[in-house]
Automatic annotation (TrEMBL):
Homododecamer. Gene3D superfamilies: Dehydroquinase, class II. Substrate binds at residues 73, 79, 86, 100-101, 110. One of its GO terms (molecular function) is 3-dehydroquinate dehydratase activity. Pathway: Metabolic intermediate biosynthesis; chorismate biosynthesis; chorismate from D-erythrose 4-phosphate and phosphoenolpyruvate: step 3/7. Catalyzes a trans-dehydration via an enolate intermediate. Belongs to the type-II 3-dehydroquinase family. The gene is aroQ. This is 3-dehydroquinate dehydratase. It catalyses: 3-dehydroquinate = 3-dehydroshikimate + H2O. The record marks 17 as: Transition state stabilizer.
Length: 146
């Protein structure tokens, strides 16, 4: 089975960016750990981080019929992007939404997500471990389906 991991804007700065909020792991560390974990579940993990909304949307379009599950941290696009929501709904691929920080404990503009009501589940506030929880959840969902 195929899983697509998507990370939105500024997550390329992980490890350097506000470490008191986002921790010290870099995105490369996160992706390396997840790729290894995916292998143990016999899942094929593809990853894209982009600061551009259209690149994320194009990647979602390309995933149509190819990818079984999406794990997405839309970063700031969470709170702004109807287009990402429409893309995810358009390809009809189930997805988990992940946030490293507890967005509900932060500024009020972070409390609303354009994706959460359509996500299978939302994980936030567990640091970068949230990605691992999401991948484990994907593995058990896909296992129950087959
Ligand atoms: C984030 C939370 C968003 O509000 C913020 O814009 C991000 C990262 C998180 O992972 O905690 O860039 O999605």
């Amino acid at each position: 089975c195929k899983v697509l991991l998507l990370n939105g804007p500024n997550l390329n700065l992980l490890g350097m960016r506000e470490p008191e909020i986002y921790g010290s792991q870099t995105l490369a560390d996160v992706v390396e750990d997840l790729t290894r974990l995916a292998e143990t579940f016999e899942l094929d993990l593809d990853h894209l981080q982009s600061n551009r909304e259209y690149e994320l949307i194009e990647k979602i379009h390309q995933a149509m019929g190819q990818v079984d599950y999406i794990i997405i941290n839309p970063a700031a696009f969470t709170h702004t992007s109807v287009a990402l929501r429409d893309a995810l709904l358009g390809v009809n691929i189930p997805f988990f939404e992940v946030h490293i920080s507890n967005v509900h404990a932060r500024e009020s503009f972070r409390h609303h997500s354009y994706l959460s009501d359509k996500a299978t589940g939302v994980i936030c506030g567990f640091g970068t471990q949230g990605y691992e929880f999401a991948l484990r959840a994907v593995a058990s969902k896909l296992k129950n389906e087959t």
